[in-house]
Structures are given as structure tokens and as C-alpha cells.
Write a structure and sequence with these properties.
This protein has helices at 13-26, 53-56, 142-145, 302-305, and strands at 4-6, 39-42, 47-50, 65-70, 73-78, 129-131, 137-139, 155-159, 162-166, 171-174, 177-180, 192-196, 199-203, 208-210, 217-219, 231-235, 238-242, 247-249, 256-258, 272-276, 279-283, 288-290, 297-299, 315-319, 322-326, 336-339, 342-344, 358-366, 374-380, 388-396, 403-407, 412-417, 425-437, 442-454. By secondary structure, it is mostly beta strands. It folds into 5 domains: 4-88 and 121-179, no CATH class; 183-219, Laminin (Ribbon); 222-258, Laminin (Ribbon), CATH 2.10.25; 261-299, Laminin, CATH 2.10.25.10; 330-454, Immunoglobulin-like, CATH 2.60.40.60.
Length: 459
């Protein structure tokens, strides 16, 4: 009776082809993993595991042979010897021979024991087993007795009737040698990976911490530690600081510095800009107040608010940025007062000859640096005579040639500002209207004494 050891040497080419096809179908290693013959790569366990050829190969053993799987192969053993102690048949002992009592007379009677060889039953065990004192075949632990042939890089694993040479975790068998598995090559770590012999170590990029699984990383919410002086916005793997309105981020990326809005533009405020932490404010000169928009200046009418120093006998006249108190009208002789703002020189009075018939007093305000040309005042004849025509002219006060008269009709004219005037300044103009009537040989004139208050500021 014999046995066949399979998996390491097949008995026929047909069986070898079948085993080869099975191995090729079963060995589908992942990530470039290659397993030796008799092993297949388990993706879940991430290691090579033994292939049970007794289940995978049809009719692995022939006849009365029983298939026994081993790591990396299988054995074909007789069913009568498989794990059954061998007990030989009881031997036939020879009949004992006694001496003839007639020819041999003993001196004294004695008991005689039979003389025959004692045969000890010995079990015949298959390879990998040894017989014990009880006659049972026991497995030989080749790893324990150091009778294996694994090389120093391998680990011996005892099996029933044999042993197998494998590798420790973190190594795989290539060409009979255990070589380190580079776990980093196969993406074991989510971010950073450091390979070490038989193992690996994962770490995370800045802004992440390692999860309890020691492989994946999770984002760190840096804003919980309040690294920013104003606002913080957490991002994936980092964070961003932001500043309140009116501030900008400093070079350190965390603190905020005040923005000087006044330096952005000289037109931010109509008059003057004052920087404040995170903002700015506009101020106006005396005689003005800050308008609702917070930037422009509006004239403070002291005459309406009562915030003036004029007496009850005076008249308060408001202009841009200030006011003036006008004294009661006093007409110089030979003129007499005919109304609150008009003086007249009668034609019957010889002293009035060659003098304007009337002097009408008017006042107006003008912004400093006003754009030109600008129509600022109109005058016209109130009394019309048949056959008369009218001439309008600036009689006095236009020393700087800032004004001129433009006649708009036969009886009217407009005072035009032709050059900008800088204030504060007070200009008194005598605007003359000359009436000419050739039919009755008449020539006379009237004066409007216009006082122009030029403000200090262009608003």
C-alpha cells in the first residue's frame, strides 16, 4: 500500500494542466500582489491564503486514494491508512517442545516456561508521522524539531503530516524569499505614508489629524483656537482670517490693521476727512454742517436759525458759510430814500443833474471758484418810453474784469461771471441802465448797486 504526495508533483500532464488553469483563475492578486503556487491573494485579508485543491480540483486523487489538503499543495493517501494506526496480525507461535519423561528424569519437579521470541507490534506511519508508544501515528512538528527547510527569511508553519514556509505580516513570498511589502505604494494611507520593514506608518498634512483607524485624516477646525483678531473662516486643511469693515489683513495673516480711508481719495469728503478706527468722518468749516450723506457740507443759515449777532435795527443777510448784518439804508445827499432799498435824486433838484435818477441796492452770494461762464444776475427796465432804447453796462467795481454785461433784449441784460473769483471777498458793482430817447432828446440813467459776497469755500 502506498500514497501519493500531490501539489508538489502531479501524476499526469492532464492533472497539471487542470491545476495550472485553476491556479491562474484563483490567483487574482490585488495591487500587483503575486502569490506562489498553491496560494491565492485574498483582497479582504490582503495576504496570500492556501488554496484547497481537494475541493477545487475534480477527482484530485484516483482510485481508493483520499485527498488531504496542505498549505501550498495536497496529498493522496490510502483511505485505510489515513489517520488510522497500523496494527499487525497476531503471529502464530510454535508449539512448545517438552522432554520425554522416560528418557529424562528430573532431580526434582519444576515449572518450565515456554521459550519463543516476543514480537512487538510496530505501526507503519506515512511520511510526516511517527508511531507512538500506544501504536498511534502522531504528526511530527517539523517546526518544533527544526527539521524544516525554510530559509531564514521565512516562518515555519506546522501542518498535518508536513509543514509550510510562509512570511510574517508585512512581507510576501517572492522567489522563495520573504520581501517587505511597500504598503505606501498601494495607498494604505490617505495622505502621508512612511514604509518600514514589515509595516508602515501614516501621518497627515498640516491642518489635519490622524483618525483612530491610523490611516485616514480629518480636518482640524483651527478657528476653535481663535487664531484671528477679528473673524475666522475654516477651510479644508487650513483657515482664513477676515477683518471687519474698515480694516485690512496684516502681513502676518491673522491680525487686522485700520484702513486710512482718507488716503484713498481727496474727494471722499467735501471739505476735510478725519480717519477713525475702522471708519472715517467728514467735517465742515464754520458756517456749515455735515449733510445727511455724511460727506457733503450744507450752509448753516444763521439768519433763519437765529444764530447771529445782528441787532433788531439791522437786517441779517445769509451767504454761503456765513452772514452779514446790513445797516438801515442811508441815502447820501442829494438822494432821498423812497423805499427800504432805493434812493432817488429828483429831476427838479439842480444838484441831481448828471447823476443817476435812482440807486437800487441789491445783495447776492457767490461760491468761491464757481465755474465760468455763469449768468449770475439779471436787470431790466421797469418803465418803457415810446421811442426810447436802453443801454446796459458795468459802471464801476469790475476792476479785475471778472464780469461783463450781455444784453438779452431791448429792455433787459444779464450779468455774466467770466472769471472765477476766490473768496472770502466782497465785490460791489454799479450796474447802469442808460435810457436814450432821441425823439425828445432825453438821456438818463439808473443804477443797481449790487454787493456780491464771495464765500471762502467752493460750496
Amino acid at each position: 500500500m502506498g500514497f501519493e504526495r500531490r501539489g508538489f508533483r502531479l501524476c499526469s500532464s492532464a492533472r497539471m494542466l487542470a491545476a495550472l488553469v485553476f491556479i491562474l483563475l484563483c490567483i487574482q492578486p490585488g495591487h500587483g500582489q503575486t502569490c506562489t503556487e498553491g496560494f491565492a491573494y485574498d483582497r479582504r485579508a490582503r495576504q496570500c491564503i492556501d488554496v484547497d485543491e481537494c475541493r477545487a480540483l475534480p477527482d484530485a486523487c484516483r482510485g481508493d486514494m483520499r485527498c488531504v489538503n496542505q498549505n501550498g499543495g495536497y496529498l493522496c493517501m490510502p483511505r485505510t491508512l489515513y489517520n488510522t494506526p497500523y496494527r499487525p496480525e497476531t503471529p502464530v507461535l510454535p508449539e512448545p517442545v517438552f522432554p520425554d519423561p522416560e528418557t529424562y528424569l528430573p532431580a526434582a519437579p519444576r515449572s518450565v516456561e515456554p521459550s519463543y521470541p516476543r514480537v512487538r507490534a510496530t505501526a507503519q506511519c506515512i511520511l510526516g508521522y511517527s508511531a507512538g508508544e500506544d501504536g498511534i501515528c502522531n504528526d511530527i512538528d517539523e517546526c518544533e524539531t527544526n527539521t524544516h527547510h525554510c530559509n531564514p527569511t521565512q516562518v515555519c508553519i506546522n501542518t498535518a503530516g508536513g509543514y509550510t514556509c510562509s512570511c510574517t505580516e508585512g512581507f510576501w513570498l517572492i522567489g522563495g524569499q520573504c520581501q517587505d511589502i511597500d504598503e505606501c505604494r498601494y495607498g494604505y494611507c490617505q495622505q502621508l505614508c512612511a514604509n518600514v520593514p514589515g509595516s508602515y506608518s501614516c501621518s497627515c498634512d498640516p491642518g489635519f489629524i490622524l483618525n483612530p483607524d491610523s490611516r485616514t485624516c480629518q480636518d482640524v477646525d483651527e478657528c476653535e483656537e481663535e487664531p484671528c483678531t477679528h473673524g475666522c473662516f475654516n477651510t479644508y486643511g487650513s483657515y482664513m482670517c477676515n477683518c471687519d469693515e474698515g480694516f485690512e489683513l496684516a502681513a502676518d495673516g491673522t491680525s487686522c490693521i485700520d484702513l486710512d480711508e482718507c488716503s484713498f481719495s481727496e474727494f471722499l469728503c467735501q471739505h476735510r476727512c478725519i480717519n477713525t478706527p475702522g471708519s472715517f468722518s467728514c467735517v465742515c468749516p464754520p458756517g456749515y454742517y455735515v449733510y445727511e450723506d455724511g460727506r457733503s457740507c450744507e450752509d448753516d443759515n444763521e439768519c433763519d436759525t437765529g444764530n447771529n449777532t445782528c441787532t433788531t435795527a439791522q437786517v441779517c443777510f445769509n451767504f454761503q458759510g456765513g452772514y452779514t448784518c446790513l445797516d438801515p439804508l442811508q441815502c447820501a445827499l442829494p438822494y432821498i430814500e423812497v423805499s427800504d432799498n432805493q434812493c432817488m435824486c429828483s429831476a427838479e433838484n439842480p444838484a441831481c443833474r448828471d447823476k443817476p435818477f435812482t440807486i437800487l441796492y441789491r445783495h447776492m452770494d457767490l461760491s468761491s471758484g464757481r465755474s465760468v461762464p455763469a449768468d449770475i444776475f439779471q436787470m431790466q427796465a421797469t418803465t418803457r418810453y415810446p421811442g426810447a432804447f436802453y443801454i446796459f453796462q458795468i459802471k464801476s467795481g469790475n476792476d479785475g474784469r471778472e464780469f461783463y454785461m450781455r444784453q438779452t433784449s431791448n429792455v433787459s441784460a444779464t450779468l455774466v461771471l467770466s472769471r472765477p473769483i476766490k473768496g472770502p471777498k466782497e465785490v460791489v458793482l454799479d450796474l447802469e441802465m442808460v435810457t436814450v430817447n432821441n425823439v425828445i432828446n432825453f438821456r438818463g440813467s439808473s443804477i443797481i448797486r449790487l454787493t456780491v459776497f464771495v464765500s471762502e469755500h467752493p460750496f
